[in-house]
Amino acid sequence: MADDVGYWNSSSGKVWRSGFGECWRGGHWTPDMATEACDPDLMAQAEPDPEPQEQDADGDGVPDGRDACPGTPPGVKVDSRGCPLDADGDGVADYLDRCANTPANTEVDEHGCPLAGTKIFTIEGVHFAFDRSELRSEARSTLDEAIRVLRDNQGVTVAITGHTDSTGSDAYNQDLSKRRAQSVHDYMVARGIDANRLRAYGRGEAEPIRTNQTGEGRAENRRVEFVVEE
What we know:
signal; OOP family OmpA-OmpF porin; cell outer membrane; OMP_bac; 230 residues; OmpA-like_sf
């Protein structure tokens, strides 16, 4: 007889059993030698080997094999590719972005804030009636969006620049464009934007963006633009 496999075996390889049908364990028997035929209870208790865990070196929840942005700092929220979230799509991750909710297609610096000289909003001519500087209702909805952007970007100072079409004298249009810019300035200050962050300028008819030979072109030239200052 031999017990080299944990149980006493006959020369034919069969396990010897007692009168009660129990397998005879050898002197070297250990639980890891248990077989289903002899110790089914022990086999049922044995747990399967755990599945190998995929490595996730930066701990962002995305395995290294699928992580397009390895080395993410601890606690930073990531997308399904393992890259830090960038809610406004400006190319600067949210955890580094000092100016959240930057308008689409705005050029930004390494902190996610609009670059000086960047135009961030334009209120086009349909919002100003001919020869008038009062804000129309549709202009207010656009301005409310601009106010939200300024609240989200506290470090930004903006030049509000008014423009006119070519109807009228240069001097009159210069004054009208300044009044339009001032109307926008006053509206925004009344809604909580610090006046020190806003500058109102008039450019008159000097910088058209469309021809002044058509009604449609003149309407587009009657506008106010927001440009980030230094």
